[in-house]
Amino acid sequence: MGNRLTEIATRTGDNGTTGLGNNQRVSKDSLRIHALGDVDELNSHMGLLLCEALASDVRELLIDVQHQLFNLGGELSIPGYQLLQPQAVVQLDQALAHYNAQLPRLLEFILPAGNRAASQAHVCRTVARRAERAVVALGNEETLYDTPRQYLNRLSDLMFVLARVLNRAEGGDDVYWRSSRLSQDQENTQ
């Protein structure tokens, strides 16, 4: 692994390249750097979500997610290196089962809305999907382990579920899309 930065303004990227963890220089618009950037952005959005008032179990889970995303970024920064372990995906599966069991069945599509924490969870969900697409694109060009792709896929699902949980934490509910089908179903049940 490369040396940790002691200086931030190194000026080595002024020519449009950046250094990977193995000291290789690549273009800042490479697929690997796009994937790294999307994972970094996702981690930043997780940090913003952690600024909200959250139940302690949700907070602990999201803090662990931040550490796992940093592991994922580390793995992406060193071609051929594995840092994100399959157990991290299992942990997300367990969290999905736990939180999903608390929720009522969805009646219709929901909007990415509600309270601020839930809305931020939806932002995390969409950025996780983008990061997943970037990792898939990179995996189509270079050999990658399966765990990063699986982790991001599962994480986006978890953030959808947590958005629903967070809306209910303040006594709210899902914000349903006003579809003509839902309106007809509601009229038929009345």
Can you describe this structure?
The protein is mainly alpha-helical. It has helices at 31-49, 56-77, 86-100, 116-141, 147-169, 180-189; strands at residues 17-19, 25-27. It is elongated and about 65 Å long.
- Spatial arrangement of strands, main beta sheet: 1-2
Report the radius of gyration as a whole number of Å. 19 Å
Q: What are the low-pLDDT stretches, counting only 5+ consecutive residues below 50?
A: none
What overall geometry do the principal axes of the alpha carbons give?
Answer: elongated
Count the DSSP helices. 6
Short summary of the structure?
It comes from Giesbergeria sinuosa. With 190 residues, this protein is mostly helical. It has helices spanning 31-49, 56-77, 86-100, 116-141, 147-169, 180-189, and strands at 17-19, 25-27.
Task: Provide the fold topology.
Layout (H helix, E strand, L loop, with lengths): L16 E3 L5 E3 L3 H19 L6 H22 L8 H15 L15 H26 L5 H23 L10 H10 L1
Antiparallel strand pairs: 1-2
Give short descriptive properties of this protein:
single chain; two-stranded antiparallel sheet; elongated; 6 helices; mainly alpha; 61% helix; 190 residues; 2 strands
